[in-house]
Design brief:
The complex is a heterodimer of chains A (about 280) and B (about 250). Helix content of chain A is about 30%, strand content about 25%. Chain A is of the alpha/beta class and about 280 residues long. The longest helix of chain A has 19 residues, at about 260-275. The chains are: A alpha/beta (about 280), B mainly alpha (about 250). The interface of A and B includes residues 105, 107, 108, 112 and 177 of A.
Chain lengths: ~280, ~250
């Protein structure tokens, strides 16, 4: 995309032209995102220092197949979270196009559960926001939590739940939005290794039960290799796609499977090469 | 428990000083004098207490409505916040002692002017923490709601309002603590009843022990209100506090 910097009127067009191919749930085409950050001096305007633009993403093009799990890995600050914001319509691209078929719902970093609400009411939040009456939303949330093996936590408030359970409730809340595409930002990043492995296995089972298109941002190549059908590696800022690795391994996977180890090694190589470049 | 011990120690010292120094009862009544006065004048104290309790109670409800309303309004609109906040702060510099007699002249000797003064003093400690809490909700939770396509109202309903509830209670507790002073001030400026009125009447009549008894009644009422608020907060906002622990 040589002309990406000068593309006019950047838009996010849900279900529109850019995502025409039926098997694509999300399409990014030459996406660029720039943040204006105040210059070195505090009173930039007064002293005549122009704000210094920071390019978060540059020339990112991706087509994400419906029902696939795509891991986005990259060093911190490479624009991974920005990419999810763009897909979910929380930010607009400065150039290029972002298209999503149907709604894409974000699970922000950290569990962002509401501390005053029970697990049940937290899970029901997406439905409540969508206008479902309280009783009905709770009933559906209860059914979903039970189906996902979280039924015994329904009446607990988040402060009574372990980190792993909180993340699962947050994933359940995201699924209950009914959106065909869900964007998970470091869903298990704050968990210890054992809890994380359990949560990953749980997510694999959950997605087998309820297939969705998933964008999974992670800094953990092992997590990417265990969960994803495809791994997209971004370079340090400005984030560009430096590797696009199909995984093609059957589930369930273990971290020690030769296939997983090999894919992980390729992702790490790509990260390393991007970091040096 | 500790508070009771400290109180006992202070009362003991006070009683001993009043007894040993031979100081006149109308200058410094001993705790037992105050207790006797409280018993002898219980009917008088009760009647005047009801007047002051009404001023404080209704005044606090007015402050609550006004405080929450203003907090929501200023939270909703940045322009209103910039325009009104300085005025709210300025309202707190109004010298109540000077304004109270004027209010009595304008509005009469009954409940009206007292409500104005109690509300003027009490709405401010409610607005400030509530407004701060409304506008400092967790950015992650805001992002979550934005991602779910929540409206401004839904953000308030599901996130901002519950997040601000503990701060509202903090403000209410501060308001309760200053409501008694406000009511007494308002009564001294012009009234025919109430504990503040009783206090100002008792001193020139050399019934100092009765004035002290009125202060004790008022203190007990304030402390009870404060404790009741803490209990209410535990029911309404249980996530913000440990389930057990002292009420005061």
């Amino acid at each position: 995309m040589p002309a990406k910097g000068v593309m006019p009127s950047p838009t996010r067009t849900p279900g529109a032209s850019v995502a025409t191919e039926e098997h694509h749930a999300v399409v990014l085409d030459g996406v660029r995102r720039v943040f204006a950050v105040a210059g070195g001096r505090r009173l930039g305007r007064a002293t005549g220092t122009a704000p210094e633009p920071v390019v978060a993403l540059d020339g990112v093009s991706l087509s994400i197949a419906r029902g696939s799990v795509v891991a986005i890995v990259g060093p911190s600050g490479c624009g991974k979270s920005t990419l999810l914001d763009l897909v979910c319509g929380l930010q607009r691209a400065d150039a290029g196009h972002v298209g999503a078929v149907g709604q894409a719902v974000l699970m922000p970093q950290g569990d962002t559960l509401l501390p005053w609400a029970t697990a049940l009411d937290n899970a029901a939040l997406a439905l409540r926001v969508a206008g479902t009456p309280k009783a009905q939303a709770r009933e559906r949330a209860r059914t979903e939590l039970e189906a996902l093996g979280l039924g015994r936590f329904t009446d607990s408030r988040p402060d009574a739940l372990s980190g792993g359970m909180r993340q699962r409730i947050a994933v359940a809340r995201t699924l209950l939005s009914g959106a065909p595409t869900i964007c998970l930002d470091e869903p298990f990043g704050a968990l210890d290794a054992i809890t994380r492995a359990e949560a990953q296995a749980w997510l694999t089972g959950t997605l087998a039960r309820e297939p969705r298109t998933v964008l999974l941002v992670t800094h953990d190549t092992e997590e990417a290799a265990l969960l994803a059908d495809r791994i997209v590696v971004l370079s340090p800022r400005p984030g560009r796609v430096v590797a696009d690795l199909p995984v093609g391994l059957p589930h369930p996977r273990r971290a020690t499977d030769p296939g997983v180890v090999a894919v992980r090694a390729r992702a790490l190589d790509a990260l390393g090469a991007a970091g040096r470049g | 428990m500790l508070a009771a011990l400290i109180l006992l120690a202070v009362l003991g010292g006070w009683q001993a000083y009043a007894g040993l120094s031979g100081i006149d009862e109308f200058l410094l009544p001993s705790p037992t004098d105050v207790l006797n006065a409280a018993w002898d004048d219980r009917g008088l104290l009760w009647d005047n207490f009801r007047v002051t309790a009404e001023e404080m109670g209704v005044g606090l409800v007015v402050s609550l409505v006004l405080g929450v309303g203003l907090a929501l309004l200023l939270h909703r609109s940045g322009a209103l916040r910039r325009g009104l906040y300085p005025l709210l702060i300025a309202s707190q510099t109004v010298p109540i002692v000077l304004v109270a007699p004027l209010l009595a002249a304008w509005l009469g000797y009954d409940l009206g002017p007292k409500l104005v003064i109690v509300a003027l003093v009490c709405f401010f400690p409610i607005v400030v923490p509530t407004l701060d809490a409304l506008s400092s909700t967790d950015p992650g939770q805001r992002k979550l709601m934005a991602g779910l396509g929540a409206s401004r109202w839904q953000l308030l309903r599901f996130v901002e309002a519950p997040a601000a509830l503990p701060a509202l209670f903090t403000g209410l507790r501060l308001a309760v603590a200053v409501a008694a002073i406000a009511a007494v001030l308002a009564e001294t400026a012009g009234s025919e009843s109430g504990l503040g009125h009783l206090m100002t009447q008792s001193i020139p009549q050399l019934e100092t022990a009765r004035a002290f008894a009125a202060v004790v009644v008022l203190s007990l009422f304030s402390v009870s209100l404060y404790a009741a608020l803490t209990l209410a907060e535990r029911r309404v906002a249980p996530w913000a506090h440990p389930p057990k622990g002292p009420v005061l």
